[in-house]
Structure formats: structure tokens, C-alpha cells
Design a protein that fits this description.
Length: 141
């Protein structure tokens, strides 16, 4: 989990602005209900925004599960041992909502992958709106 988050964040953090600065990010998992990776990326982005860390763009992650019947479940909650065909987690950048990282578990077709990516991209736009509203509210106070 840590390496995937690190790789995704390295795509958006402007490390060259402060070359002699160490940015230490510690993510502590309190509960894993199946979407912990996306939650970790999104909460880390919020923390970076709050800390004023310069970034090229924002990052939003979303998980989708392909159920055994082929249906797609966005941000699914499941417990260990639950049956599913595949689980995919996408990270998107805010400029063009392009995929910057993806991790998968299970098997799926190319068509299913594209449907999952489209569904998660739509959800990521909602996360970007949440970031924007949160920042506006923070600086109004």
C-alpha cells in the first residue's frame, strides 16, 4: 500500500520547489472496510493541501469492485473472505482527470477495465469538488 501511495503522490508533489526539504507522510490504517487505499490517498491529499505543500495538481483515488455477477460496485465495503471477481483502485490527477496510477486484484476483461475507469473518473470529479469546497470553507473561517 505504501509504495503505491508514494508513487502516486510523487506524480503530483512539486518536490523541486524545496529540494532540501523532506516531506514525511504517515498513513495509519484504523479500519479496513475494503476501500482503504483510496481513502488513504484522498486523506493524504487533504493533508498536503492543509499543510500548503506545493503540487502540480490534486490527486483523487476511487475503488471499484467487480462483483461475481459482473456488476460494478463503487467504493464498495467488504470484509475479508467476501467473494468478488476483481477490485481496482484508480488515482486521477485534477487537471484532465487522467489516470496516474492503478492497482488491481483479480481478473477482468479490457471492457470491464474501461467501464471501471470511466465510473471512477466520474466519482473522482466529485472528490475534486469536495477538495475545492473544503479549501474555500477553510479560508473563509
Amino acid at each position: 500500500i505504501g509504495n503505491w501511495i508514494k508513487t502516486a503522490l510523487e506524480e503530483v508533489i512539486l518536490t523541486n520547489v524545496h529540494p532540501h526539504t523532506i516531506i514525511s507522510i504517515i498513513v495509519q490504517e484504523v479500519e479496513n472496510d475494503g476501500a482503504v487505499l483510496a481513502a488513504a490517498v484522498n486523506s493524504t491529499c487533504c493533508a498536503l493541501l492543509d499543510a500548503g505543500i506545493p503540487m502540480k495538481c490534486l490527486i483523487a483515488a476511487m475503488s471499484v469492485t467487480i462483483a461475481t455477477d459482473g456488476s460494478l460496485i463503487l467504493d464498495s465495503r467488504h470484509k475479508e473472505g467476501d467473494e468478488f471477481q476483481a477490485m481496482l483502485t484508480f488515482a486521477f490527477e485534477s487537471l484532465n482527470c487522467k489516470i496516474i496510477s492503478v492497482t488491481t486484484q483479480g481478473s477482468f476483461t479490457e471492457k470491464q477495465f474501461k467501464k471501471c475507469a470511466k465510473l471512477c473518473a466520474t466519482a473522482a470529479k466529485g472528490i475534486f469538488e469536495f477538495y475545492e469546497n473544503s479549501i474555500k470553507q477553510r479560508f473563509r473561517a
